[in-house]
Amino acid sequence: MSQSTMLICTTLLSLSCALSGCTEEGDAAKPAVSEATTAEASMVFVNGQVYTVNTKQPWAQAVAIQGNKIVYVGDDTQAKSYITDRTEVIDLKGKMLLPGFHDVHIHPLESASEVTQFTLPGYASESEYIDLLYEASLSHPNTDWLIGYGHEIATLLDMQTSPLEVLDEAIPERPVIIMEQTSHSMWVNSKALALAGITANSQDPIGGVIGKDSQGNLNGILYDNAGNQLMELAMNSRPDAKAQDYYGLIEYTMPELNKVGITSISDARTYWQRGHLQTWQRVADEDKLTLRVSLGLWAYPQMSDEKQLASLKAMFSRPSDSLLKVDQVKFYMDGILVNSTAAMHEPYEVNWLNLYQNKGLNYFTQARMEKYIQALEPVGFDFNIHGIGDRGIHEALNAIENASNGDARHRITHLEVVDPDDMPRFGKLNVIADAQVAGEFSQPSHWPENIPLIGVQRSQDLVPIKSLQAANATLTLSSDWNVSTFNPFVALSHAISRAPQNITLAQAIAAYTINGAYAMRQEHLVGSIEVGKRADLVVLDHNLFDLTAEQIKQVKAELTLLDGDVVYQAY
């Protein structure tokens, strides 16, 4: 660490006053003391506002580290005994020290990979899209497929011309696939459809819909798993895909995550048939990981259960001495509200896709999910289950109740429309409730946008984190980047201000630290600042408890440590 990062002292100054800070109730707390046998520390933080996320000792002034472990948490005076002339002593000057943040639902390979060649604006006119697409084609003349990202589904649905015709006019000679911002639909041209063998007579795949107009003609939109399968074809056509994924991870994603204080993540969709697992393993083998990582292997809906279960079992890995674990599986129960594919108890107010009973779709049925739980829990896998609609969430809870042995740490993620009767089941069944609130679309001011889809009553209290917390659910907060920003300070700000579904700051921090560690089976190592735990720490430029919700959005991390090593410093 450079001296310009912070004032580094070789001896402690006399500190005349106790640490000021707020407990969850807002009162000043005198730092307690937690210490191991006194020994020389390699690094000591002093004069800080240390929020430990340890309910037995919420606040401290000083933390001592030996190598990668925390050996002392307490006041400045007793920290002196850990300091020698070889100890790096960091005067925090009253700044806040926290355990490193966990993001247990993020898409790090997909979101920064340079396999994606161009980005479109969310909204544009048909002529503007044609111009942008033509320019993208000219800029990438030597690839078989053009792969893009960025539009919003409403833009395509509002077009006066068929989206297929628009894309064909811009790029008729090469297959094109463009991922919508939520990743739950793909915009494709006729060349792409032909390569996939999709015609107007093709049957919808499991968990997906082939978009058609009112006359039954293909319209160039592939919903949910129909689009996923075609994207798989496009990605596997790119011989440089693994290299692009690797460089995106190394050069952008991990440094940027460390920059905002994130030290642990769960990759929420590891496409193992695209080489994602090999990419992660390469980074680990080269000792370049700056995060603790749990991979959520994608469960392919169209794959036979026998083959998929055998493949998943063979990939499981949870070595105690590695930052990389392959110990989660990512399942989709349903789609999303804006596509009318989220699985609902009652029909949608609109009928765009002619789905059976107009109640959304299932990637995996409850019965099939139970089969996977029974087969994969004994191996050690925990499930990360996408559930947005009330029926999808209900069926996921049913599957866990019917098939789980009770020792797993399954979680349901997104949780947009939750049946109130299902909320107590999260605590009862030990199912983690994982929510994302960083995106503006999750804010209460945007809830009325769903009224045309699901009516007034079901559009209230979307992502009900306060209700879930009150129902004794273990709550985690995450980003789903790049659907939402991975900046945890934005999510913390929204979590405490999105009344009526807001929580306290202490609860939000716990959701991003110790609860995330629990979801990754590493709460014994990290997630709080306690003696014996690893030194995954972040220094902030302000004490979060002293700020308004809007001010929290502007907070910066100044220093991030992983396993006692500096992985980010601001200066």
Automatic annotation (TrEMBL):
Domain Amidohydrolase span(s) in chain numbering: 88-568
InterPro entries with a match to the protein in the record: Amidohydro_3, Metal-dep_hydrolase_composite, Metal_Hydrolase, YtcJ-like
Gene Ontology molecular function: hydrolase activity, acting on carbon-nitrogen (but not peptide) bonds
Leader sequence residues: 1-21
Entry-linked Pfam families: Amidohydro_3
Recorded superkingdom: Bacteria
Keyword entries, A-Z: Hydrolase, Signal
Record protein name field: Amidohydrolase
Organism phylogeny: Bacteria, Pseudomonadati, Pseudomonadota, Gammaproteobacteria, Alteromonadales
